[in-house]
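Handout for the seminar on molecular recognition.
Each group receives one record of this type.
Step one: identify the two inputs.
Step two: read the structure output and locate the region that could contact iron/sulfur cluster.
Step three: write two sentences on what you found, then compare them with the reference statements printed after the record.
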Amino acid sequence: MENYKFMQNKACEYFPCHKLKNEKEFNCLFCYCPLYTLKDQCGGHYVYLENGIKSCQACTKPHDKDAYEHVMKKMKDLMEMGKRTHNEIGK
Ligand code: SF4
């Protein structure tokens, strides 16, 4: 079970948008990676281009079999980034 961890949309005109060894395990749950804003802490296979843009072209982390577990491990970091600072709260 645990169907909330995996979904596949073969009707998508871009499926599979990245190459995985086993296409049956291609996870579409995170179509766009929620970890992009974590910069070098995302745990993926990124490169930074000379212009400062982070390129995820070679990364399949959000589509791997264990994508759900990987993203959930990083969720605390994302929540920290979204928090208001003491200055913003006014305390
Ligand atoms: S796609 Fe990969 S490299 Fe890009 S942010 Fe997500 S985990 Fe990191």
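Reference statements: The pocket of iron/sulfur cluster is lined by residues 33, 35-36, 42-46, 56, 59, 61-62 (CB under 6 Å). The chain has two helices and two strands.
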